[in-house]
């Protein structure tokens, strides 16, 4: 068990990692237990041998006389005196399947080295149980009797069982190691796939990455089908080990579609409808022939050589988005149950990434639409004035920003220009942005002085917002004279906003000292006004703190760089 003493979110990869550790520890514990058992069995066997668990025997082969010790009688399950004392009587106790081999080894000893060793089965006379024994013997060169063997026999049934158990456990351990290694490999593949799927929020990129990942490591061909706006399954991405395989795969799909989707070995629509995978572990030639509609179709099927397939649904948040099909058409491979589980897990991860991408795309589209609704659709055409605006998002997220601007007609040849910045981001900021922008447009109907326009906007914010949100804004009233040679008069006021900058035609630039208290904090903020005139070639630039607070490391762009940049643009 693992735990964290701080709040965190456990991911699927965390869970898989802990499971891998648990599997490794479990294998070690099981192996240690087996080793203890084997040591105990060996000790027991040693004690048995030391206590006289051997039976002695002698066999005069020429005369066919055989003598067994009392312990040998017990090993064979014969009562004392019950043995007939011949080699044939002894061989009757040997298992029928081993009898010929035992006889042959005895005569082989007589003709060769004179050393005898054999392991065989016996059938106990008393119980009928089959037991394993091991026999050692030697040819005794006695005068007048050159064919006499003497030796010992031991019941090794327990040892044989231990050996068989050891072999079985070793085989089981090797199989468990192989399965654990395979599980680790597939866990690594899933982690790699998840990294690929999450590398982009573009649905098209996510879909394309699924067949690219599957081919060739998992499949010879892979197709991803997604539901379109009309509810039809259409191909979204595909890949194969080579171009002919991909072409044949698409032609087979086209032929099946031309037949109305009937026949075939599986149905993508049925998989999507039931959200249940279609698994074909081993596809026989007979099944391929049965799926053909005519001779040309059969020739195409046989050329493609389909051998195994899996069709898994792409399900995310209880919604089926499509299906993924993986196939094998090369000899020597086919899918098993573990492949089915892996493909289903892969499809689930791909579907979740795809759904996240679609949600991001939808939310981004909504955010851009809402952001556009908070800005003027176009700047007005004003005689003797040129207007330009740039709205560039500094951060690559999808939250709605709080910066806004507007230009409105406020009187005869008079125009109001406002640039503002609402605290925060997202829906709350968007709501306050809309309130401030429309409050300014309402205030200019009642007031001409920029400070009074901002004061009325402050009252509207305080009346309708009951939290600690606030706003900054810079407002200009621009009066264009009746005569062409008359200067343009500008009255500027700022409520906590970065000061506007005036750029003269001769290259001089400076900030307009019109700063006041920001909006939405106090009931009667201190606001000032500054009047100035613009001659031909002069300009006023309003901006937000997104410019002055732009960073390179810890270095801010700052107001001084704003002024210096403007001087270079006169």
Structure description:
The protein is α+β, with helices and mostly antiparallel strands and 570 residues long. 44% of the residues lie in helices and 24% in strands. The chain has 15 helices and 20 strands. The chain has helices at 12-50, 70-76, 87-93, 96-111, 157-198, 203-214, 243-258, 268-274, 285-291, 295-304, 337-373, 427-446, 450-464, 545-548, 558-567, and strands at 54-60, 65-68, 115-123, 130-142, 145-155, 221-227, 233-240, 278-280, 308-316, 319-328, 403-411, 414-422, 471-479, 488-495, 501-503, 509-511, 530-534, 539-541, 551-552, 555-556. The strands form 5 sheets. Strands 2-1-5-4-3 form a 5-stranded antiparallel beta sheet, sandwiched between helices. Strands 7-6-10-9-8 form a 5-stranded antiparallel beta sheet, with helices on both faces. Strand 11 and strand 12 form a beta hairpin. Helix 1 (12-50) runs antiparallel to helix 5 and helix 7 runs antiparallel to helix 10 (295-304). The model has no long low-confidence stretch (mean pLDDT 87).
């Amino acid at each position: 068990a693992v735990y964290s003493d701080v709040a965190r979110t456990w991911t699927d990869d965390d869970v898989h990692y802990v499971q891998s550790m648990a599997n490794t520890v479990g294998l070690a514990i099981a192996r240690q237990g087996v080793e203890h058992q084997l040591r105990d069995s060996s000790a027991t066997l040693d004690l048995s041998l030391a206590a006289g668990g051997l039976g002695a025997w002698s066999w005069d082969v020429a005369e066919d006389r055989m003598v067994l010790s009392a312990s040998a009688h017990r090993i064979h399950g014969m009562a004392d005196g019950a043995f007939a004392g011949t080699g044939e009587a002894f061989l009757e106790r040997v298992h029928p399947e081993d009898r010929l081999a035992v006889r042959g080894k005895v005569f082989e000893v007589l003709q060769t080295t004179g050393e005898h060793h054999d392991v065989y089965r016996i059938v106990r006379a008393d119980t009928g149980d089959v037991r394993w024994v091991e026999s050692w013997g030697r040819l005794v060169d006695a005068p007048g009797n050159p064919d006499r063997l003497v030796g010992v026999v031991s019941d090794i049934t327990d040892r044989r069982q231990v050996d068989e158990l050891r072999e079985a456990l070793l085989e089981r351990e090797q199989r468990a190691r192989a399965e654990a290694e395979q599980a680790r490999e597939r866990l690594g593949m899933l982690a790699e796939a998840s990294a690929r799927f999450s590398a982009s929020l573009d649905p098209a990129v996510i879909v394309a990455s699924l067949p690219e990942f599957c081919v060739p490591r998992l499949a010879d061909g892979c197709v991803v089908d997604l539901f379109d706006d009309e509810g039809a399954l259409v191909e979204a991405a595909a890949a194969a080990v080579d171009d002919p395989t991909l072409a044949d795969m698409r032609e087979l799909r086209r032929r099946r579609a031309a037949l109305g989707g009937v026949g075939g070995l599986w149905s993508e629509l049925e998989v999507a409808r039931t959200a249940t995978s279609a698994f074909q572990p081993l596809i026989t030639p007979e099944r391929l022939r049965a799926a053909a509609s005519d001779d040309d179709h059969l020739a195409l099927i046989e050329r493609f050589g389909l051998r195994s397939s899996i069709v898994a649904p792409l399900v995310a948040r209880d919604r089926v988005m499509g299906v993924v099909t993986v196939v094998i058409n090369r000899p020597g491979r086919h899918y098993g149950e573990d492949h089915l589980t892996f493909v289903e897990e892969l499809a689930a991860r791909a579907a979740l990434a795809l759904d996240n991408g679609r949600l991001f795309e939808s939310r981004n589209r909504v955010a851009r639409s809402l952001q556009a609704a908070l800005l003027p659709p176009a700047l007005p055409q004003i005689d003797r004035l040129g207007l330009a605006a740039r709205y560039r998002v500094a951060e690559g997220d999808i939250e709605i920003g709080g910066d806004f601007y507007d230009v409105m007609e406020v009187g005869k040849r008079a125009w109001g220009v406002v640039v503002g910045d609402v605290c925060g981001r997202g829906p709350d900021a968007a709501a306050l942005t809309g309130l401030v922008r429309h409050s300014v447009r309402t205030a200019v109907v009642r007031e001409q002085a920029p400070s009074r326009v901002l004061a009325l906007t402050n009252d509207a914010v305080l009346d309708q917002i009951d939290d600690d949100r606030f706003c900054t804004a810079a407002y200009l009233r621009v009066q264009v004279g009746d005569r062409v040679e008359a200067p343009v008069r500008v009255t500027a006021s700022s409520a906590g906003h970065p000061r506007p900058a005036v750029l003269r035609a001769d290259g001089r630039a400076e900030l307009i000292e019109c700063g006041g208290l920001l909006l939405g904090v106090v009931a009667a903020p201190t606001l000032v006004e500054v009047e100035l005139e613009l001659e031909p070639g002069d300009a006023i630039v309003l901006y937000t703190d997104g410019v002055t607070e732009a960073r390179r490391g810890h270095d801010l762009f700052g107001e001084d760089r704003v002024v210096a940049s403007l001087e270079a643009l006169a």
